[in-house]
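Onboarding guide, step 5: your first structure request.
Type a short instruction followed by the sequence, for example:

Predict the 3D structure of this protein.
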Amino acid sequence: MTKALPPPTDSRRARAGGRGFATFDDPADALLTDAQGNPDFAAIQRSDDFRELRKRIAIFVLPATTAFLAWYLGYVALSAYAPEFMATPVLGVLNTGLLLGLLQFASTIALTLGYARYARRRLDPQVTAVRALTAEDEERG
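The system replies with structure tokens like these:
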């Protein structure tokens, strides 16, 4: 039995820049869109790429949030329950409370920069993979 094969210019892989016609490449994954061509969000949510994205987000966000909240609540608890410790002079008029308060700003900036770097290196490529499931970027470009 013979199959009717599409010409090389009609294959999805050829349009996407792949080798296309008559290759031994794995077939391209089906796009996760509904009948109208809109993204099928339920199918995307079940996809392995989306699960990997959620995992990568949790790997950074959960520990960072836990550590920052512990650091902030520790500062608040020290301010409320150890005022004599927080009033300990460190350098001139700078006391422990002021120093820890300034370190709150520094840790917020460090956390923001760390997340931006993590997102750029680990999340953005995965977001691109999830978007490719619907070919949404190809339509915009």
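Each response can be followed by summary notes, for example: Residues 88 and 141 are 60 Å apart (CA to CA).
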